[in-house]
Amino acid sequence: MFADQAKIIIRSGRGGNGHVSFRREKYVPNGGPDGGDGGKGGDIIFELDTGMNHLSDYRHRRKYKAQSGEEGGKRKCTGKSGEDLVLKVPAGTVIKDAESGRVIADISGSNSRVTVLKGGRGGLGNHHFATSRMQAPRYAQPGQEAVELEVILELKTLADVGLIGYPNVGKSTLLSRLSNARPQIANYHFTTLHPILGVVDIGEGEGFVMADIPGLLEGAAEGIGLGHDFLRHIERTKVLVHLVDAASVEGRDPIEDIKTINSELSSFSAELEKKPQMIAANKLDATEDGGKEILEKLKVTFPGVPVFGISAVSGEGIDELKYAIWDFVKVHKDEDVSFESEFDPMEEVRADEAITVEKASDGLYFVYGSKIDKMLGYTNLESEKGFAFFQNFLKEQGIQAELERLGIEDGDTVQIYDMAFEYWA
Q1: Phi, psi dihedrals of residue 38, rounded to the nearest 5°
Q2: CA–CA gap between residue 109 and residue 48 (Å, rounded)
Q3: Strand duo 103-107 + 93-97: pairing
Q4: What is the dihedral of CA 319, 324, 326, 327, to 10 degrees?
Q5: Closest residue by Cα to residue 261 from 309, 312, 297, 227
Q6: Angle, alpha carbons 181-184-189 (nearest 5°)
Q7: Which residues contact 347 (CB under 8 A, 6 or more apart)?
Q8: Rounded Cα distance, 368 and 256, in Å
Q9: pTM of the predicted model, to two decimals?
Q10: How far apart are the C-alpha atoms of 102 and 340, rounded to whole Å?
Q11: Pairing between strand 161-164 and 239-245?
């Protein structure tokens, strides 16, 4: 079964805990601490797979979890990092936060591999915490927790041209005429239940991709029928070709059909309404006057929109339409239709741990978080000026006040990642 949307839960790997152990050898009975660091948790990565064209696999499985890091070992051995989980998706997949609907990533074009969730960092082993006052620390840092998120995967077809219209106007027949696609064709509504792509060859290595978008019905923008699923695919296209039944074989008014579909496009997205459009009046062979009357009405009703008369069955006007579409596509071919990221799940994690101050045990305090990590990246603590800046940073950020609130005393150890300092007020 074709699937263009799926909702899944992803979870990065938890960081491994630091290890508590002490060197014990035959002639070294009282060796120092040698507990190793925990391994990093695995990341959740989405990667483009050119061999995929649907999201069906994600309909059968709901939860995806990366491997957690292993605990550190004796002799300062670092635990094994958890393996990343790489989730393969087809080109054109947009990843959204399920709760807010905001775009996390768009897997298309050059954006073929994106890390959505990062694994937790491993905790430090007890050998990091040895000081002159605390030579046998029995504390190791726990690994960072995993991050879990519910996301929506939406496949938005990658095509230059979107062929749109009501059911049974001949879209599948036209696509088979123009391209190498061989869609199923039958005389009933929604023969096409998912977009079908066809490559239209212009010659000399030139061409464009056209998508037969399943028939749209009034109320599609409100989700009636399969409306939302179909409209989603039109967002990627650069040019829209309205196909209408010029002969009104089913009693439909071609002009009203176009107006209704344009209204649905506008209701779904303001961007869809702005897309360049063409009109192809099909089934001229079934009209009494060769389609002259309806073609004139279409030109008058939709000024500025190119109108072509064709017969997908007999082939009348097909070549003229093909080259006109190609000229239209060339004008808009460099317009990259992609979705910018609106939400970084890890930003909230970084915000939550901007600065964390905690008491590990009597005489030992931890300070960590993204804000202080960033500060250490550009501060030279070996220089007098750099260390003075560091001390001022501790005061300004309220770190010193928090340490005092937790009961720190002169001579106690403050551990900031792999650096240890003795505290003196």
Answers
A1: -75, 155
A2: 9
A3: antiparallel
A4: 140
A5: 227
A6: 125
A7: none
A8: 64
A9: 0.68
A10: 10
A11: parallel
Q: What angle do CA 368, 374, 378 make, to 5 degrees?
A: 125
- d(CA 421, CA 89) in angstroms, rounded, equals 48
**Measured between alpha carbons, how far is 414 from 400 in angstroms, rounded to an integer?**
10
Q: How far is CA 106 from each of CA 120, 272, 331, 422, rounded to the nearest angstrom?
A: 24, 18, 24, 48
Cβ distance 58 to 3 under 8 Å? yes
User: Cα 2–8–13 angle (5° rounding)?
Assistant: 135
Residues 66 and 44: beta-carbon distance below 8 Å? yes
Closest CA to 86 of 57, 63, 113: 113
Pairing of strands 113-117, 44-48: antiparallel
* One-character DSSP codes across 302-342: STTS-EEE--TTT-TTHHHHHHHHHHHHHHHTT--------
Residue 106, Cβ neighbours under 10 Å: how many?
21
Three-state secondary-structure class, residue 46: strand
Structure tokens at 359: 């008491």
Tens of pLDDT, residue by residue, the chain (425 residues): 345 789 999 999 999 999 999 988 777 667 789 999 999 999 999 999 988 878 888 988 899 999 999 999 999 999 999 999 999 998 889 999 999 889 999 998 788 999 999 999 898 888 887 766 677 788 788 888 899 999 999 887 778 898 888 888 888 888 888 886 554 433 334 444 567 778 888 887 788 888 887 755 544 444 444 445 567 777 778 899 999 999 888 788 999 999 988 888 888 777 787 889 999 999 998 888 888 999 999 999 999 999 999 998 888 999 999 999 999 888 877 666 677 888 888 877 666 666 888 887 778 888 877 777 777 777 777 788 878 888 888 888 888 898 989 998 888 888 887 677 888 77
> What separation in angstroms does the CA of 270 have from each of 205, 225, 232, 325?
34, 21, 13, 23
Q: Which long-range contacts (CB under 8 A, 24 or more apart) does 202-207 make?
A: 202/322, 202/323, 202/326, 206/326, 207/326
Q: In whole angstroms, give the CA distance from residue 55 to residue 103.
A: 17
Paired strand residues for 280:
243, 308
Tokens standing for residue 328: 């239209």
Say if residues 22 and 136 touch (Cβ distance below 8 Å).
yes
